[in-house]
Amino acid sequence: MDVTSTYKFARISPRKARDVAREIQGLPVSAALDLLNFTPRKGAFLFSKTMKTALADAENNFELSVEGLFVKSAVVGEGPTFKRFMPRARGSAGSIRKRTSHLTVILSNDGGPAEKVERPARAAKATQSKSKGDAKAPKAPKAPKEAKEATMAPAEKVEHGAAKLDERLGMVYDSPPAETDDLKSISGVGPVQEEKLNSVGIYRFEQIANWTEQNVEELEKLLSFDGLVERENWIVQAKDLATGSKGH
C-alpha cells in the first residue's frame, strides 16, 4: 500500500531540492530519516518534514507498520516563481527570482527497497588503468602485424564482452562494451536509473529502442520503474538518439 505526502509551495528551488530527492530514493524509512537528519541542507529539512507527515498518516490512518516502509518515490515539481527586483546603478534594476517547489514523498510497503548496485563500468575502468600501467614496461621487439591481430582479438572479447539475446530483457551485454552511450540523455533517466540499467547489461540507445512490450514489463518489475518507461517515452527517445549518434 502507498502513502503519499505533499509539501506545496516550499521556498526552495527545484534544482536544489532534487539533489536531496535522489539520495533518499529507494531507501528504507529509517535510513532515509538518518540521512536527512545529518545532511546540512535546507532541502533535507523540508523532505524530513514531508516524510514524517507520511509516516504519521501510515501509522495512524492506515495502521501500517513503520518498519516495513521504504521511500518508493521522492519527486520535486516546480511551483510559482516570485519576481523581485534590486536597484542597480544608473536607474536600472536587477531581477531576482524566488523559486518555489512542490515536494512529494510516496512511502510503500509493497516489495522492498531497491539496492543500489555498483556500476560494472567502474571495474572496467580500473582494469583499463591497470593495463595502461603495465604498458609502461620496457618495449619488446615488434611482432608481425598478423600475429599482433591474432593476440589482440581474444583480449578485446574478454574486456568488452559481447551482446546476447535475453527473452525477458532483450539484447543485453555481459560486460561493458567498447562504446557506451550516455543514457542520462533520455528524459526521465537519472544517475540511479542509469546504474540500474547498467546492472542488467543495458548500455546503448539501440538496446532501449528495440524493447518489446514484454521487455518493458519485465524491466519495470525487476528495476521498480513503476511505468516510467511508457510515461517518458523512453523507446521513442532512444530511437531518435540512436539515429542521431549514427549520423555523427
How are the SSEs placed, and which strands pair?
Elements: E1 2-10, H1 14-24, H2 29-37, H3 42-61, E2 70-87, E3 93-108, H4 120-135, H5 145-160, E4 163-166, E5 170-173, H6 191-199, H7 205-209, H8 213-223, H9 228-231, H10 234-247
Antiparallel strand pairs: 1-3, 2-3, 4-5
Task: Describe it.
The protein is α+β, with helices and mostly antiparallel strands. It folds into 2 domains: 2-87 and 94-108, Ribosomal Protein L22, Chain A, CATH 3.90.470; 157-247, no CATH class. Helix content is 46%, strand content 21%.
Give me a quick take on this structure:
This protein is of the alpha+beta class. Helices cover 46% and strands 21% of the residues. Strands 1-3-2 form a 3-stranded antiparallel β-sheet. A two-stranded antiparallel sheet has the order 4-5.
Can you give the helix content as a percent range? 40-55%
First-to-last CA distance: 47 Å
Low-confidence stretches: 153-159
Question: Mean pLDDT, nearest integer?
Answer: 81
Domains (count):
2
Counted by DSSP, the helix tally is 10
Q: Please state how the strands of the largest beta sheet are arranged side by side.
A: 1-3-2
What is the overall shape?
globular
Radius of gyration (Å): 24 Å
Question: What is the subunit arrangement here?
Answer: single chain
Tell me about the largest β-sheet: 3 strands, antiparallel
